[in-house]
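seq:
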Amino acid sequence: MTDTDADRGAMPGDETAARESQALDRDALASKLKGWFRVDRDASSRWREEAREDYDFVAGRQWSAADEAVLREQGRPPITFNRMLPIIKAVAGSEVNARLDIQYLPREIGDAAKNEVLTEAGRYLADEAEAEDEESDAFVDVAITGMGWVEMRLDYELDPDGAYVEDRVDPLEMVWDSTARKRNLADARRIFRAKSMDRAEAEGLFPDADPADLNAAWAEDRDGDQHAGLQPGDSRIDRPGSAQEGTSRVTIVECQWWERRRVTAVSDPGTGEVTEMDPGKASVLVRRASAMGITLQTHSITKRVYRRAFIGGTVLEEGEAPAGDRFSYACMTGDRDHNKGTWFGIVRMMKDPQRYANKWLSQTMDMLNRQAKGGILMETGAVPDQAEFEASYAKPGAVTWVADGVLNSGRMKPKELPQLPAGHYQLMEFAIMSIRDSSGVNLELLGQKQQEQAGVLEYQRKQAAMTILATLFDSLRRARKHIGRVRLYFIQNFLSDGRLVRIVGDGATRVMPLLRDQTIGDYDVIIDDMPSSPNQKEVIWSTFTSVFPVIKDMITPQVLLEVLPYSPFPASFVAKMRDLLAQAPTDPQAEQQQQVAMQTAVAKIQDLTAGANLKQAKAERESALIQHDHIDGFAKVAAMAAPPAQPASQLAA
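struct:
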């Protein structure tokens, strides 16, 4: 076939062969993806069982069906005091109070001015999508099960131009590469999401697909639940309806994976711009350029190409991944189970102490109930009517009749009351205490410390608890970097179409169009504390107010513009103050006076620092002298108390 024939494409007679070839390719792709899914699902099947149990424990369902049936058969109460939920809520609250912010720092010269626009645009889109709430919800999943997932996507149903959306994803819907071992699955080559939905919804998403192919029955879980992430008895499965009514449930599997592909990089001799293209197209381009007397520089490279497919009974849709050169799902992981290749949260360590605490409490209640009623030993003829005796004996105010002489003859005697085993209460207290100890969350972080202690000590103990939980927060920080990169890709490639966004910066809030020339370039994703974080506000505002008496003369409107977002004032008040300060006229003489006051304040701070250092050095010197005097005194006392030395001749004798 000539180059001209290749340019025109296949002839009409070849369309049937092309469709058959495409069908064969899709069948091969479906077979490959299904094989990956089964291998990865089986590798994480045990984790799914434990994850469901973890969710049950946090929700207060902490007795197994077998144990609860035995207790009810014995007439014992299956008591549950859920001490795990407050711990999970304390960890989740710590994350909410110290949320992180995504910022974009430019890599290229001249991008500094555009950086603020891009960062503020990202904040605006995240605020519209309520992204921080979805990420916090996924962080709770990490603390419970060891896995948390967030999906980033563009929704064209909400907005024809594309609305940025972030959603927390149920971890039980996700299946990941079983060979991945790095935190947050950074080395995963593929991920799956098996989502259960109404058949009507599936038909709306894939209107051209055969309705018989809209259910991935092959994705049936090992426990017999064909709807991944759901259990038999779930209302989302068993609700009434039929396939004809469109209300039955089906499962659609989404797969994202990357593969290595050889591409040809072609350099434009005029501009030096490099374009990557398919090797076949590159060869055609080189031949055409050579015929025109132009020499193109080319070289082959290997790239990662991310793909996505939706699968039911067969491949319903296949194409490029929505997030460019990375997955559109961000994963957070807890602690690594190295031998099983899975991850777990802090609930796993708390389950056994919680079980034992519940069992010992139930056993204690049963013992106390039996002691309250007691019992009696007696002979058969000791009472005139045994049924009446049994009915009246358990009633404190009733009269119980016995035969004459029974009380004096000893024919009736009460049973000995059972005694609680020694150390029973200590074991129950130990189990309750172990729930906190195994999680690393102490009473100070829970806010339940009863005894009075210094604020510095309480703060240090809170920080110690946060140090134990630091790996969880580190996973969240790493996931937010991934989210920031995906968000940047969406902004640069899809959302920079002139839509209006709210930009907060330079002391004012304004609305401006988001244009492509304002967001182009390479950026580093930086994770920092948010100005709206309560802990961050408290620390910065407390530090600012402590040094305010010293630097009050150097406070300028520009300084207040930077400090106000960290103040505890309402947002409306802060916005009005920012507007007033931004409109305040500048006076050159006042600026000069402020500079002189700033220099004076800096000198004063330096003097105070030098004085404090001098006092500290003096105190250390006095402490050293006192310690030296104590050592001399101890030496003198020891010398006085020691026995007098004897001549060597006497010692030898």
